[in-house]
Amino acid sequence: MPLVSIIMPSWNVEPFIEETIHSVQAQTFADWELLIADDCSTDRTPAIIAEIGARDPRVKLIRMPRNGGPALARQASIDQAQGRYLAFLDSDDLWLPGKLERQLAFAREKRAALSYTAFRRIDEANTMSGRLIEVPASLSYNQLLKNTSIATLTALVDREISGSVAMTNEGYDDFCLWLAILKRGHVAYGLNEDLARYRVRGSSVSSRPMRSAKWVWNIYRNVEKLPLIKSAWCFGHWGARAWLKRREF
């Protein structure tokens, strides 16, 4: 199997980063590199990453020269990635041990430029809550415009199929990337298996629904350049799905 490059931004996640890295080290698929771009943390986050990297050379610390947000940090990791596959994981989330192995087999079977999986939510104390967040079998570009199903920690990109991968420096830069890949005519495929843990924290960038809504509207109008009526139509569907997901969380 080709190398998987795991793309991770980090910023002041001292309480969580070691457990997140360990969830990668526990993968049943071992041919990976973990590229962690630290966005000028003021706690021990970079020191913890460096300590683990000294013992496991697959874990690589990238120090950002200035604090620029998750999009630029992800791009710094992508710029150094050697793998055919890019997997995305935030620095406070977790993978279950079989995540990479199962998803790689699924992605190769589907010849998927982009794939994603189901997941469950945990809090800061690792208490699991809510139901399994299931995913649709596939998503086209127009379907994704109205959907919230591709969680960052579940995404896997095959660069040989997807073409170039570059982050857009906007809120929901991950959503921008998924749209950019699918806009080329690709279809994203969903593996409806519980393979990841999404941590909900009060300080996380996606924890404020009004800000999230503003980001999505900005993507419709200023990134994707959608007409006003189509933007409103997509936004209505996106908002309803976002509300249902939060309610079911």
Protein model, in words:
- 39% of the residues lie in helices and 23% in strands.
- With 249 residues, it is α/β, with parallel strands linked by helices.
- It is globular.
- The mean pLDDT is 94.
- This is Glycosyltransferase family 2 protein.
- Residues 5-135 form the Glycosyltransferase 2-like domain.
- Pfam families: Glycos_transf_2.
- InterPro entries: Glyco_trans_2-like (IPR001173), Nucleotide-diphossugar_trans (IPR029044).
Query: What structural category characterises the helix and strand content?
Result: alpha/beta
Poorly predicted runs are none
**What is the strand content?**
15-25%
Number of extended strands: 10
Q: What is the helix fraction of residues, given as a range?
A: 25-40%
* Quaternary status: single chain
- Secondary-structure element pattern, one letter each: EHEHEHEEHEEEHEHHEHH
Radius of gyration: 17 Å
Main beta sheet strand tally, sense and closure:
10 strands, mixed
How far apart are the termini? 35 Å
Mean pLDDT: 94
Shape: globular
Number of helical regions: 9
